[in-house]
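Q&A FORM
Asked by: J.P.
Topic: structure of F-box domain

PROVIDED:
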Amino acid sequence: MASSSLPPAMEVGESRNWTELPPELTSLILHRLGAIEILENAQKVCRSWRRVCKDPSMWRKIDMHNLGDWEDMDYNLEIMCRHAVDRSQGGLVEIDIWYFGTDGLLNYIAHRSSNLRSLRLTRCSQITDDGLVEAVLKLPLLEELELSYCSLSGVSLRVVGQSCPNMKTLKLNRHPQKENDDDALAIAETMPKLRHLQLFGNGLSDTGLNAILDSCLNLEHLDLRRCFNVNLVGDLQKRCSERVKVVRHPNDSTHDIDIGSSEDEYPYGFSDIDLMSDDTEFNDYYDLTGASDYSDYDQFDYYDDMLI
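REPLIED BY: S.T.
REPLY: Here is the structure written out as tokens.
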């Protein structure tokens, strides 16, 4: 019997050289990381990884997830996000921004990403109604929008619906609200193609819910958790169950709501990768491991030129 059926690269005790992976496989792995991890860690491993990280296809989706401690970080997340958007070269289709979003950043993204399909803003208290309105006017192809714990009103929602006629998914998550149907009426009047609607903690009443059911005839998933002004019983409950495939009730569990309460776990972390396993001399010479000031674009252009 053969001593081992494993290929040579998998022999016990033999280390893996991550830098020699084919670019296609490296790209698949790095796509599992967020933008911060790519810019602060992955692109500094070696030449080959940096080339992959520079490819515009790596930036069709930008995930700027963080734990809300951005003010204590050694780098500026807004500048980093702008750098990531620039790398997409107009190919950005999905972006997630947590905590640090501003009107200026949102419009920077919209101006350079007219093909954007999905926008997620979580706890971005600095984004205003005017900022959102100005941005969505430049995003006619937007199909998915999440606004979680942002200080935005039904006025901006109405403009979103009017400017983005293909809107299919809307997630509007708030702290539990007093009775107010402004959001619901804006949705009913301007977003008839919705298929997925999450109104976590919204203040809509039975009147607002009926308006949505009257107008959004393609609705398949309706999440009303913590919408305590809705009396989902009797005829209204029957109407929801007959019209909508999946309905989450006001008192249903909220354990699966992702609102930035815990850190994501990336399946391909760097715990088992030696960041200096290849091209140590190169890293020392150009000091890539210390390059975290994204306000200095000339520095990054210099590195990029040297790697071509």
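FOLLOW-UP: The first helix runs from residue 23 to 30.
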